[in-house]
Fold this sequence. Notes:
With 216 residues, this protein is an all-alpha fold. The chain has one domain (7-211). The protein has helices at residues 7-19, 23-59, 63-68, 70-96, 101-105, 114-129, 132-141, 153-179, 189-211. α2 (23-59) crosses α7 (132-141), α2 (23-59) runs antiparallel to α8 and α4 (70-96) runs antiparallel to α9 (189-211). The radius of gyration is 19 Å and the shape is globular.
Amino acid sequence: MLGTHSLGLFAATVFVVNATPGIDMLFVATRTLRHGVGGGIAAALGVAAGCIVHTLIAAFGLAALLAASSAAFAFVKWAGAAYLLWLAIGMLREGIGRPSDAAADATAAMPVAAAGRLRLFRQGLVTNVLNPKVALFYLALLPQFIAADAAHKLLAFLFLGGWFVAQGALFLIAFVLLLAPLGHWRAGTSLRRGLHVAGAGLFTWLAVRLALVERA
């Protein structure tokens, strides 16, 4: 189809990629536990939107700049690490801040209004876009499933990228629906604080790991 091949293998590869814990999955998980199904799906769709950006960048050859230019790669890498640290600081503030009486009596999951869902969507998008490993992954994976004699390689690339985005979005939404019931579990104030602090620590670790990434 459109000059592609081995689509079954491609689908299996995408599933393995989606099921491997990483920055995107952790972000969606924390937002789901904090804000329920609505917040989790907003975060998941933001991640999917980020993948659309990466698809377009890679399809039109701009992702090659990250592979060829150490300066461009370093800029995106440090911007992504800084953003993850910013998210970690926000989680840490929630963990060590003084909770109000209403917050102390609330369940762990706090539904968000439309404006809050838009904010989560933007956070998911930025988290994904500012990860140069995703751009390089697109550049390395998708061409392997495009036939050498394909008449329209750009269309083939966009087709595979769209498949990747759609399958990834469905996976994350299913992940949210499976995880969301845990958000209704009433946890004590100390445990909620501990979860936020632990989440901040994980995002800090991911930021450090991203900062240490080198171009292949």
